[in-house]
Amino acid sequence: MRTSSYNIIVKVDDDAGRYALLNSYTHAFDIVNQNVYRYLKNEGSDCDISDETKKKLVKRGYITSLSKEDERELVKRLLDKIYDEVRLKNFGFHFIISYDCNLRCVYCYEDPILNGCACLPKCRISKEQVDKAYEIIIEKDKDKTGRKTIHLYGGEPFLVENYEMLEYIVQKGKELGYVFSVTSNGYDLDKYMDYLEENSKIFSFQITIDGVEDIHNERKPHYRNKDSFAKITSNVDSLLKLGISVSIRINTDPYTMERANELLDYFKEKGWLQYQNFKAYYALLRKEVPIKGENGEYSKEMFTQSSFFCTYLQKGLEKQGCGKVMCQDYSVRSVLTNMLLGKSTPYKSHFCGAQSGMIIFDPLGDIYSCWDVVGQRAYRVGHYMPDFVLEDTFADKWFDSRVSKFSCIKCKYVLFCGGGCLANAIRTTGILQSGTCNDYPRLFNAEIKYIYNEKIKKGIDEN
User: Fold this and answer.
1) CA 344, CA 439: separation in Å to the nearest integer?
2) What residues contact 393, with CB distance under 8 A and at least 6 apart?
3) Which of 69, 260, 271, 444 has its CA 20 to 30 A from that of 310?
4) Per-residue pLDDT tens for 144-203?
5) Coil, strand or helix at 119
6) Are 286 and 438 in contact (CB under 8 A)?
7) Cβ(408)–Cβ(415) under 8 Å?
8) How far apart are CA 32 and CA 22, in angstroms?
9) What pLDDT is attached to residue 292?
10) 22 and 337 in contact (C-beta within 8 Å)?
11) Dihedral sign, CA of 266, 270, 276, 279?
């Protein structure tokens, strides 16, 4: 018998000498004392525990009879089985109406294809292309197992000049029973309000507001008048009053985090936190943006994912947001809470839908599976005009990206992490493959400490 290689042990209480103990494939979650910790860490050679405790450790998978190689093979089989169950079977469909945008966000990852050296044509998707895309959607979802939400993306999908084509896409989707999730900057939505009121039950929006007015306008200026905050927030007001779900994304770095409280105060003043159809979340800004320092110079600072989460907690933003303003954490808290409650928690065989079945139709006839690389033809997965073709050379890099093939298989977090974001791997290493974990272990451990302090500690102390 030996200690499992897939145990996660985190010291959560210095004073009481308590540790959180998890096993990533049995999904056991317990709080243990220092004796148990030392027993597991030293393979039983430095500490003795009762026979009853040993039996519990075996039963819950913390101690195993499997060799390291056999245990790794078990995890590999789990990952591959789960991946095969979803790969190219549960599709999600997306339309890029055009590669055009009316804002000039300073951190835009699409900037090279929107305005820069690799600028793409600003043509809109055609009716012929939309018709072809819907033929594919119908064929791929013939078993009615796919998601019944179509995502609208860009560029900016709700540009004024996109009205006719957007209406055409939505009408065809409505007839097939689809609803629409939209990633929009929100600027031109006032031109669509009558249409949105008529169709309020089939739309939901994600809109980015990066801070109070001066911060937002500095980072997300309109290409003409440099001011976008007042118009976007007015349109958010209108959406909420129509009962349309709105999720506000707050792209955050150390500079904007310093004034995060001001934005929450603004949300409260607007009354947005009172709406059932409103929520917001802080998202880590990964592209470096010049930040004005105290001496008037510009510096470049970046959060890690774990330091970002910890700063969010330290500033009390969760409580200030009245449960409506969360922090992007790749669903770690949800996973840990479910484990704590003994609820079924699925293993994660891949990081996101880009590796299993996202189909993004662009206005040039190409297909992508990841929002972060649209327009970069080296990362397409195929084309849909004149016919639907997944090109093996490209598609396999996304749709056969098995985390079990990489060194991740040795990691005790792999069944929670899914191997990390492939787009982030491209940004940081230039290679499209799993293994760029983006500070995930430290984020996971920080969330464990949060769960312990918020949901476990008081109950233990009372007993």
Assistant:
1) 26
2) none
3) 271
4) 766 799 999 999 999 999 999 999 999 999 999 999 999 999 999 999 999 999 999 999
5) coil
6) no
7) no
8) 10
9) 58
10) no
11) negative
